[in-house]
Amino acid sequence: MAKTKKYYKVKNLNKQEFKRVVGVKRETFNDMVKVVRKHYRDKKVKGGTSRALSANDETLLMLEYYREYRTFKHLGIDYEVSESTALYIVTKIEKILIKEPQFHLETLKHIEPQDEGIELEIVVVDVTESQCERPKKSKKITTQVKRRSLH
């Protein structure tokens, strides 16, 4: 049986606090959990080790990762799982939710403003990591420091 760790702390928050902490409305969160539970029920995996967390906590972990961009090490400590398990859970829940039509986002070119008076401006920002250029070490550039004699 999967354990519930953190969901009990946020489930009794009011609507505004829940959305501030989790990042989505309670109804959306509950819909996400239903999709995850349905996936687990349909999969019917027999044998093997049980899941470390409940569907509520797995979904909350994934949303917390995207809301706060915390490291998997920190998420693992909060949910009492390893760093690699936290990464596995986030990617697994992503894949489950992306397959569901209600959580699959349309491409940007299909988005149209609902009201004619509103202008829609789309900005795309490249935030991929790139390697930092650093000077190469060489013996010619490095100055040698002479040691003082201790005598």
Notes on the protein architecture:
With 151 residues, this protein is mostly helical. It has a domain at 7-110: Cyclin A, domain 1, CATH 1.10.472. The chain contains six helices and no strands. The mean pLDDT is 78.
CATH architecture of the domain at 7-110: Orthogonal Bundle
CATH fold-level assignment of the domain at 7-110: Cyclin A, domain 1
Main sheet summary = none
Structural shape? extended
Which stretches are low in confidence, meaning pLDDT under 50 for 5 or more residues running? none
Content-based structural category: mainly alpha
CATH class of the domain at 7-110: Mainly Alpha
| Average predicted local confidence, pLDDT | 78
- Cα Rg: 24 Å
| Span of the ends, CA to CA | 71 Å
SS elements, strand count: 0
Oligomer: single chain
Helical percentage: 40-55%
Total of helices:
6
Tell me the strand percentage band.
Answer: under 5%
SSE arrangement, N to C: HHHHHH
